[in-house]
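Researcher: Going back to the complex we discussed earlier. I've cleaned up the inputs and rechecked each line, so this should be the final set. Can you rerun the prediction on the complete assembly and write out the structure?
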Amino acid sequence: DTGVSQDPRHKITKRGQNVTFRCDPISEHNRLYWYRQTLGQGPEFLTYFQNEAQLEKSRLLSDRFSAERPKGSFSTLEIQRTEQGDSAMYLCASSGGFSNQPQHFGDGTRLSIL
Amino acid sequence: AQKITQTQPGMFVQEKEAVTLDCTYDTSDQSYGLFWYKQPSSGEMIFLIYQGSYDEQNATEGRYSLNFQKARKSANLVISASQLGDSAMYFCAMREGEYNFNKFYFGSGTKLNVKP
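Model: Rerun complete. Updated structure for the full complex:
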């Protein structure tokens, strides 16, 4: 069990640029989640995959955000035309399929928009 | 309505004393799971303890215990013998359903400061 890994750890970019983050979940986990977290707040749900299927997206996720999990393993989250308000920590988590199984989180990608 | 409510934005506790962090939840499901996570200033989310809706006994994990009151829909975290390293944000979370759930719901967190 190597844990959930996210890349990059930090991303600084200019407003209007596109960014892409990667998440590698724990290998035996078929559920994968993306969250956004701002300072002093709890994780805010963005989207959820079961295997390669994206089963739910938050209404907060604008059209500029897209996520994929093409082979049911790693996932990418892309933000197009970044805005100041996109500055946040983006967390990825994975879990197994039973209600007693917690989510395991990666260390997150901190996005800063200049 | 909020699925998870944590009413204490911040708490102070003296080192070696016990502290209770409050969490109430809202669900109409019979099957659900309740989780507590710790997030130190370094940012990683650390799973602490789990309580299932059908579990009759309160969960315990070392110095952590969960005071589960199903009728009141509360799942308070009790940390015994606080240590300086316990200073962190603490999040309560809920997962609804047995298999076909969709997401976890997180509270807004409680910042715990342990004083020497």
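Model: Worth noting: The radius of gyration of chain B is 14 Å.
Researcher: Good, that matches what I expected from the previous run.
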